[in-house]
Design goal:
Jelly Rolls, seven-stranded mixed beta sheet, five-stranded antiparallel beta sheet, 15 strands, binds fe (ii) ion, ferrous iron binding, cysteine dioxygenase activity, metal-binding, iron
Length: about 240
């Protein structure tokens, strides 16, 4: 049976995660031993490269995963399990994320089309396993933004120190975890795709809660990430 590129990718990812699970390893950046991660990383990158080669944008377009919005960048869920979640993010020119973390997850970002700029920052919570621990003794509640999925906010926003910046084009695979850095991603000003940029994000395990760093508002917001579409079907705005 010949599988479509996206299905083939999901099958290869499921196998890669299952293989490590069967060896008794937890899949997350904190508990997974380096040799298990290296094996996983190599299989995941192989599967992502294959998907890019065979699928290009067309397969993701056909699945209904490429949806742009003039209001904000969109997150479009392709597949999810207990081990991982796979989503397509669509960025118009001028759109970008806030500085954010990825909980305990490994995060791989493959550029499918256009160019994105990633800026990395040192993570003030690197190594902290308890989300409730304040980063500063002065930390206190802040007024949260009126957005779906917001759980709360605290002030002040810790000082964010930029540690690196780069632009990535089609076929590039970036990797990040909370032990390494926080980051912000935006559509690069010199993107060569008319609509903006399209990226494929793989998080393992799925990210259930994120911290969004807002220096302008001097607060850190905790939020349950939401989706613009799931399985190619538009999710109703709450
Ligand atoms: Fe991210």
């Amino acid at each position: 049976m010949v599988l479509a590129p996206v299905e083939e990718l999901c099958a290869a990812l499921a196998q890669a995660f299952e293989a490590e699970r069967e060896l008794g390893y937890e899949i997350n950046y904190r508990d997974q031993p380096p040799d298990s991660f290296q094996r996983l990383d190599s299989r995941v990158r192989g599967a992502l490269q294959q998907a890019f080669k065979t699928g290009d944008l067309a397969a993701f377009q056909a699945g209904g995963y490429i949806n742009f919005s003039s209001d904000h960048y969109t997150r479009n869920l392709v597949a999810a399990s207990d081990d991982y979640e796979l989503m397509v993010l669509c960025w118009r020119k001028g759109q970008g994320s806030r500085v954010h973390n990825h909980a305990a997850a490994h995060g791989w970002v493959t550029v499918l089309g256009g160019r994105v700029e990633e800026t990395r920052y040192s993570n003030p919570r690197a190594g902290m396993e308890d989300d409730s621990v304040p980063t500063s003794p002065r930390e206190g509640p802040a007024v949260p933004p009126p957005l779906p999925g917001v759980l709360g906010a605290v002030t002040p926003c810790p000082q964010l120190r930029e540690t690196g910046r780069g632009v990535a084009g089609p076929g590039s695979i970036l990797y990040i975890n909370d032990g390494q850095a926080l980051h912000a991603v935006r559509c690069a000003d010199d993107t060569d795709l008319e609509e903006g940029a399209v990226t494929l994000h793989l998080y393992a395990p799925p990210v259930r809660r994120v911290f969004l760093y807002e220096p302008d508002q001097d607060r850190v917001v905790q939020r349950v990430p939401g989706f613009f579409s799931r399985g190619g079907v538009r999710v109703a705005e709450p």
